[in-house]
Amino acid sequence: MKLIIIFLLILVIACMYLYFDRKLSFSRQQYLLLSNQHKALREKYNSLNTSLTNISIRYLNNTTSNGVTLEGVLLMLSPLEKGPIINKITQKLQVGILEEAEVNNQIWYFVSLPLNTDFNSKGWLRKSDFSLLFSSSQDVMNR
C-alpha cells in the first residue's frame, strides 16, 4: 500500500513538473515575442523622431479665406504628415481658413471647422485635402 501511495505521489509530482515546465516555456516564448515587438516599435518611433528634426515652417499671406474639403480627410494637430490626428472629416465640409503655411515645400492651411463645439474644431489640412479654395462666397458663384 505504501508503495502505491509513493508511486502515485511521484506520478503527481512528475505531472506537476511537466505542467509547470510547459507553462514556463510558453511564458519564455511570450516574453521573447513581446521583447522583439517592443524593440521594433522603439526603433520605428526613434526613426520617426529623427526624421522630424529639420522642419521649416514659412507662414504665408492668406490667399483664401474658405475652402471645401474632400471626403475622408484627416485634421492634423500640426502641419506634419505623420503628426497626431485630431479629427476625421467624413463628408465634404466648408471650412474657414485662418492661416497658410509652407512646411517642407508643401502648403498647409490652419482651418476652423463649423462645429457647435470648440472641441477638436481647429487644425491643419494639406492643400491636396481641398476640392475647392475661395476667398468669398461671391467667388463660388462665379465658378
From TrEMBL:
UniProt protein name = Uncharacterized protein
The organism named in the record is Clostridium folliculivorans
